[in-house]
Amino acid sequence: MSGLVYITGASSGIGQALALQYYRAGWRLGLVARRTSDLQLWAQTQDLTPARYAIYGADVCDVAAITAAGQACIAAQGLPDVVIANAGISVGIDSAIFDDLEVMRRVYATNNIGLAATFQPFITPMLQRGSGALVGIASVAGIRGLPGHAAYCSSKAAVISYCESLRGECRPYGVKVVTIAPGYIDTPLTRENRYSMPFLMQPEDFAARAFQVVNEGASFRVIPWQMGLVARLLRLLPNALFDRLLAGRPRKHRQAE
């Protein structure tokens, strides 16, 4: 299978790895990033054929800009077969600190409203066509709340629930909604973490597995599978035991740190 894939957050990390995975599989690319010059340089470095990709500049926090990017993709390249809402941020917060409430707002604006706005231009055309896949990148961190991760964990829990709701709405029309929850992936978002990261994956390994998951049309998948087992165990732990296990765990860096 090959076609057109549209990916947000394509200038680094998971998004960049997904773009290269799809390109090597013969797909055309619609790539979205704030830093379009960086993305263009990367495309040239990788010797991507210009006729097989297009770059759209948009910040997913800007609803007007990201929906316009989706509409521009449809006009220039056609309706994608796969849309991957990958753009996201991870910042630690302390809810006792007033300034961190604004950080939390920005996390939600990116990880949640930005994801919904990414999908919005494509939903009705896909439903009318009767095919397509909308892929939301969540996180294992959305399974349970971790100290210092209140904004990120809650935003990714919302991604999981949002995609589940959307899946029920789209299923009768032949459009798939796929939720992928990465574990720890070696990206700029994770390299400053000050705690252990079990089963750390390289972005290209994650992208290869995610590509398979989307092609299979799975509704929800944790990558790697080992983190899926860990996530199930964490979900089953009684609160008292879960809290004791996390006592003293290093917290995510706050923006001010």
Task: List the defining traits of the structure above.
257 residues; alpha/beta; 7-stranded parallel sheet; globular
Which fold does the CATH topology refer to? Rossmann fold
Distance between the termini: 45 Å
Strand order of the largest sheet: 3-2-1-4-5-6-7
State the shape: globular
The H/E string reads: EHEHEHEHEHEHEHH
Percentage of residues in DSSP E strands: 5-15%
Q: What is the number of beta strands?
A: 7
| Unreliable parts | none
Q: Please, what is the CATH homologous superfamily?
A: NAD(P)-binding Rossmann-like Domain
From the alpha carbons, calculate the radius of gyration and give it in angstroms: 18 Å
CATH class: Alpha Beta
Topology:
Layout (H helix, E strand, L loop, with lengths): L3 E4 L5 H12 L3 E6 L2 H10 L7 E5 L5 H15 L4 E4 L13 H31 L3 E5 L12 H21 L5 E7 L20 H14 L3 E4 L1 H12 L2 H8 L11
Parallel strand pairs: 1-2, 1-4, 2-3, 4-5, 5-6, 6-7
Characterization of this structure:
This protein has 257 residues and is of the alpha/beta class. It has one domain (4-246): NAD(P)-binding Rossmann-like Domain (Rossmann fold). 48% of the residues lie in helices and 14% in strands. A seven-stranded parallel sheet has the order 3-2-1-4-5-6-7, sandwiched between helices.
Write a compact overview of the structure shown.
This protein is of the alpha/beta class. It has 8 helices and 7 strands, in the order βαβαβαβαβαβαβαα. The protein has a 7-stranded parallel beta sheet, with helices on both faces.
